[in-house]
Amino acid sequence: MSEENMTPEPSLIKPFPEKTIYLANWSARFWAWLVDIILVLLFLNIVRGLFEPFFLLPLLWDFGNKNWGLFTVGFESIFFFAYWTVMEGFRGQSVGKMVMNLKVVNRDGTRINYPTAALESLGKAFFLPLDCLIGWLAMPGTKLRVFNRISNTIVIKADYREPHGILYVREKE
């Protein structure tokens, strides 16, 4: 057989990825969620104080209150849903995610829109324990909640590199 007729065998080398995305770990996501919970509950407490002379808004953590019930859970859950939808639809980050340097994006790393943020936030605001538990048990190793899978989103480590062509010089302290 001559060397001219030899055809190379197809190689099994995987193509080099165009972009690398680093998924956020569960502990960073938990701390971001906790920061959001604390900030929003503080805000709701201020709002409650303003409206208290006119209308008593029961709060979820106020267990001694006789009005504690479905209205309280629903009111706060709807507020959390609106907060996460607006913040993550606008920037891809809630305040907690900003603090922890995380971001919600589509699976290809592009920015999410408001309907996607609403679908992703639905699980956090209303079904978080089930959302996480099913995600951990049914999709181990993916770092996805069920509503991340449904909304086709991921939570990533945000990348705050220096802009192209600019070098920041940091003095020693």
In short:
This protein has 173 residues and is mostly helical.
Q: Can you lay out the helices and strands and say which pair or pack?
A:
Layout: H1 26-51, H2 70-90, H3 95-100, E1 102-106, H4 114-126, H5 128-138, H6 146-151, E2 153-157
Helix pairs in contact: 1-2, 2-4, 4-5
What key phrases describe this protein's structure?
173 residues; mainly alpha; two-stranded antiparallel ribbon; 2 strands
Note down, in words, how this protein is organized:
The chain has a two-stranded antiparallel sheet with strand order 1-2. The longest helix is centred in the first third of the chain and has 26 residues. The chain is mainly α and 173 residues long. Helix content is 48%, strand content 6%. The chain has six helices and two strands, in the order αααβαααβ. The mean pLDDT is 81. The chain is extended and about 90 Å long. It has a domain of 119 residues.
